[in-house]
Amino acid sequence: MAPSVTARARIRVQTSMWAPAVTGLLAVGIGWGPVPATSIAVRQLSMERFVALLPAGHELAGRRTVRSVDLSGRGVLTWPHRVNSGLCDRIIAAFDQVGAVLRIVRTAEGIATLATHVAAGEGIGLAVESDLAGRHLPGIVTVPFTGPSTTAQRVVITARNHGDPATQRLTELLLTTVRSH
Predict the structure, then answer these.
(1) Residue 157 has what DSSP assignment?
(2) C-alpha dihedral over 35, 37, 42, 46, to 10 degrees?
(3) How many whole angstroms separate alpha carbon 104 and alpha carbon 106?
(4) What residue ranges do the domains of the chain occupy?
């Protein structure tokens, strides 16, 4: 009989993962880099591109790419910082690095809610490309968001020198699965 593994999935706010990983309370976590604590082992899962979600009739909807300077001063919709601080910090940096004005008019938890607000014309959404995988978003055009800081590193974190074989195997399985897609 093969040994069994019990996994307890718990959704945690991005920044709340680091301390439990350092202390060993969190065996494996998936989040966004960069990771602030040096006592955490970090392995890159993927590099994600940001995309802009625009209402189909928007003046920028026909563009091949959209840059932060194109969005400077316009209403932007994204997720709350408390939910995904790593991605929010990348968006802030994308605007700051080129002197563009980031004007967040609304935050939304989840791509479906974000898309609803974009389709209603409340602003331009920013999300990572993988959030859109397999989704049809009626009335919305997605355009790559390009320029400095418009990619984000998805990472697997574990406590450094975590010797548990199940944790090591789960980490390798995650890395293999993501890289094969």
Answers:
(1) E
(2) 0
(3) 6
(4) 48-151
Collapsed DSSP state (helix, strand, coil) of residue 70: helix
Residue closest to 74 by CA, chosen among 112, 111, 108, 121: 121
Architecture of domain 48-151: 3-Layer(aba) Sandwich (3.40)
Please name the residue that has the structure tokens 């928007």.
58
The pTM assigned to this predicted structure is: 0.77
- Would you give the end-to-end CA distance of the chain in angstroms? 31
Joined together, the tokens standing for residue 181 give: 């897609």
Interval 69-112: pLDDT, tens? 999 999 999 988 877 777 888 899 999 999 999 999 999 888 89
pLDDT 10s digits, 25-69: 677 777 777 776 667 778 888 899 999 999 999 999 999 999 999
Please tell me the distance from the alpha carbon of residue 151 to that of residue 90, in angstroms, as a whole number: 8
Question: Per the structure block, which two tokens stand in for 159?
Answer: 């406590």
